[in-house]
Amino acid sequence: MLLFRAVLPTLLCLTPALAQAACTGASLMDRFPAEQRAELTATAEATPFGEGLLWTARKDGREITLAGTMHLHDERHLPLIERIADPLSQADILLVEMTPEQETAMQRAMAEDPSFVFITEGPTLPDQLPEDLWQDLAAAARDRQVPGFLAAKSQPWFLSMTLSIPPCAVGELATGLRGLDHMIMDEAQAAGVPLAPLEDWRTLPDYFRSIPMEDQIDMLRMALIDPDLQAEAFVAMLDSYFAGRIAEIWEMSRLSADLLPPEDRQAALSGLDLTEELLLDARNAAWMPVILDAAENHDRVFVAAGAAHMPGETGVLVLLEREGWEITPLP
After folding, report:
1. Domain coordinates of the chain in residue numbers?
2. What integer pLDDT is reported at residue 271 of this predicted model?
3. Angular region, 200: left φ>0, alpha ψ -120 to 50, beta rest
4. Spatial contact of 233 and 28, defined as CB atoms under 8 Å apart
5. Residues 34, 278 contacting (CB under 8 angstroms)
6. Is residue 125 within 8 Å of 156, Cβ to Cβ?
7. Which has more pLDDT, 201 or 6?
8. At what angle do helices 77-89 and 180-190 cross, to 10 degrees?
9. How far apart are CA 54 and CA 328, in angstroms?
10. Which of 117, 138, 253, 314 has its C-alpha lying 20 to 30 A from 37's C-alpha?
11. Which of 81-85's residues contact partners 24+ apart within 8 Å by CB, and which partners?
């Protein structure tokens, strides 16, 4: 499996990240000529539920409120919290990707079994990789304040995810500030709304751990992105998210393959397709019984999940629509 460099903006909408939105400056969008931007816009606009962050689904007197979240801190989340305060406080249950209890369980599992994310037996990365590739990876890790000895012992998939955070965002890691998901969970707990997970916490890391080692190493090669380009992708992702143009983020990732060397382009697109299949489509389908069961047992359900899960033919909103739910944007 190849996860190409341009998938970075989408990953930040998919998986919990610790970085604060500290990157500013030029946007990746500025690299595309007008014709490509028009193509991107047209494709995004044709995507079902491609625009919007907050939605309401109704059926037989029951109601599901859905929030497409960003898993990192940004002050621009505050107006979103204000908009959802009422439906959140009135919800009978909140469904999230990972509850605080699950996060604690994950941290405990990683502490008890370091092999979850580290190489504990056999050759480490410097022994497995060509010298020039390892030196480039070690330098990229240092730019993100990861010591060389930790990078050397990291499972390739885990190091590639670490390198997906641009250096400009790493300085905010120590702040402890969290993204919209955690802000919503804090509000729900203050209102006495119970929390439940959409999936087991092992689901996402298990996807990565199932990737053959040689393919994980390919992921590392693709993670060596120019820091300036990575920061521009980060800025573009944030701009699109807070404008509510969620489908645009995914299409930008696909179009970004044109910025790669020609010999990498097709592999990059194949990697993006597989990423969509594993991290979005498969999980969306697995979440539906959980959401529908919650709606069967509660009048008001609130779902908070990464924004990339909402749009598209295989997105959560279309899947609900196919089950007879009427979907409207939250006023």
Report:
1. 5-329
2. 65
3. beta
4. yes
5. no
6. yes
7. 201
8. 40
9. 9
10. 314
11. 81/180, 81/183, 81/184, 81/187, 83/54, 83/330, 84/54, 84/184, 84/302, 84/330, 85/187
0.85 cut: is pTM over it?
yes
- The CA distances from residue 4 to 99, 185, 236, 263, 327, in Å, are 29, 32, 17, 12, 33
Separation between Cα atoms, residue 29 and residue 59, nearest integer Å: 39
- The token duo for 204 is 């996402």
Tokens describing residue 81 = 């919290």
Using alpha carbons, list the distances in angstroms from residue 214 to 71, 93, 106, 205: 29, 42, 26, 17
Q: Token pair of 192, please? A: 């006495």
Of 60, 49, 68, 22, nearest to 311 (Cα)?
49
Angle at 178 between CA 176 and CA 181, to 5 degrees: 155
Task: Report how far residue 91's alpha carbon sits from residue 235's, in angstroms, rounded to the nearest whole number.
Answer: 33
Task: Name the β-bridge partners of 93.
Answer: 301
Residue length of the chain: 331
Angle made by CA atoms 149, 153, 158, in degrees to the nearest 5: 115
CA distance linking residue 268 with residue 289, whole number of Å: 32
Q: For the segment 263-274, what is each residue's pLDDT rounded down to a tens digit?
A: 666 666 666 776
Residues 6+ apart with CB under 8 A from 309: 14, 68, 280, 283, 284, 287, 315, 316
Give burial (CB, 10 Å; 0-12/13-18/19+) of 202.
Answer: middle
Residue pLDDT, tens place only, 23-75: 778 888 888 889 888 988 999 999 999 999 999 999 999 999 999 998 878 88
Beta strands in the chain (DSSP E): 54-59, 62-69, 93-96, 195-197, 300-306, 326-329
The single residue listed with the structure tokens 């120019």 is 226
